[in-house]
Amino acid sequence: MVTARAPATSANLGSGFDTFGVALSHPADTVTVERAAETTIEVSGAGARYIPTDPDENVVGAVADALDAPAHIHIDKGVRPSSGLGSSAASAAAAAVALNDLYDRGYSAHDLVPVAAEGEAVVSGEAHADNVAPSLLGGFTVVRSDDGATSVDTDLPLVACLPEVVVSTRDARRVVPESLTMAEHVETVGNAATLAAGMCRSDPELVGRGMDDPVVTPARAELITGYAGVREAAFEAGATGVTVSGAGPSVLAVPKPGRRREVAAAMVEGFADAGVGARAYQTEVGRGASVL
Ligand SMILES: Nc1ncnc2c1ncn2[C@@H]1O[C@H](COP(=O)(O)OP(=O)(O)OP(=O)(O)O)[C@@H](O)[C@H]1O
Ligand SMILES: N[C@@H](CCO)C(=O)O
């Protein structure tokens, strides 16, 4: 029997749509695997009743197939599904690490990125790696379709505020604009490059400034009740940048040093003002998945 933990993640970071991601130090999923003739799945924890146990519908079933590693798989969810915090990716990453160890496959964390991404295809129809890469590798990650993932360790406090509403990735992808102007392209590239430089320097001011995105985030913000008020409240409380986490509904903020608690409280209050319950994780950029 092998148990692995894989962290929640926040994809996009505004300017890096489908490209950037970070691992959060918490929350996380924990997956325990035992050799079996056929894969079976059991789920407990946050939102467990919304998660299918059929291996054809759960991300970990696709991971077990990809590794040719049938097992009884128990998923303990710390990351609520449809949260924008990479819930399905956390299960896929933890299962990949646990099954790799159980069956002595010898793959590296980088090798496991496309394996865990097969799990994501079960949920969204596409093998996106922008959540599984940070969940496996930790730190700040950049994924490109043709050459895997690059990761950078960084030291950065974060607040991830999860409201009690559900936005599915499928719905959030439907509102993504099909085109952008040259001016929007130039602004986005400038912001993304600023953010990446900020991550390399562990500089919350640069990261926050680079999170602005004139294209995808405004369209998705419309799906999140209270987003504008939450954003404003976070800035007033000392955030350097605020954006939609992944496909939403979570909202991610980078607090100035020493302001994390205030930013978290302001975001919860911002959602409350819009009549929406929410919880805020006071977290930071963390490590990737590991066997416990
Ligand atoms: N092991 C799993 N954990 C969580 N969700 C799963 C799992 N297997 C299948 N799913 C399904 O995936 C969907 C949730 O995935 P979705 O991509 O919408 O949310 P998310 O992973 O929290 O978000 P995001 O990728 O935006 O950060 C739900 O429909 C859920 O039933
Ligand atoms: N990059 C993806 C992350 C969610 O899976 C999106 O924003 O749609």
UniProtKB/TrEMBL annotation:
Signal peptide interval: none
Q: Name one GO biological process term.
A: threonine biosynthetic process
Q: Where in the cell is it found?
A: Cytoplasm
**Would you name any one GO CC term?**
cytoplasm
Q: Where is the GHMP kinase N-terminal domain?
A: 62-139
Q: Can you tell me which residues bind ATP?
A: R80, P81, S82, S83, G84, L85, G86, S87, S88, A89, A90
Give the Enzyme Commission number.
2.7.1.39
User: Which pathway does it operate in?
Assistant: Amino-acid biosynthesis; L-threonine biosynthesis; L-threonine from L-aspartate: step 4/5
Q: Which InterPro entries match?
A: GHMP_kinase_C_dom, GHMP_kinase_C_sf, GHMP_kinase_N_dom, Homoserine_kinase, Ribosomal_Su5_D2-typ_SF, Ribsml_uS5_D2-typ_fold_subgr
Q: Which Pfam families match?
A: GHMP_kinases_C, GHMP_kinases_N
Please tell me where this protein is predominantly located. Answer: cytoplasm
Catalysed conversion reaction: L-homoserine + ATP = O-phospho-L-homoserine + ADP + H(+)
Q: Which UniProt keywords apply?
A: Amino-acid biosynthesis, ATP-binding, Cytoplasm, Kinase, Nucleotide-binding, Threonine biosynthesis, Transferase
- Main EC class of this protein? transferase
Query: What family classification does the UniProt entry report for this protein?
Result: Belongs to the GHMP kinase family. Homoserine kinase subfamily.
Give the protein's function: Catalyzes the ATP-dependent phosphorylation of L-homoserine to L-homoserine phosphate.
**What name appears for this protein in its UniProt entry?**
Homoserine kinase
- What species is this protein from? Halobaculum lipolyticum
Protein's gene? thrB
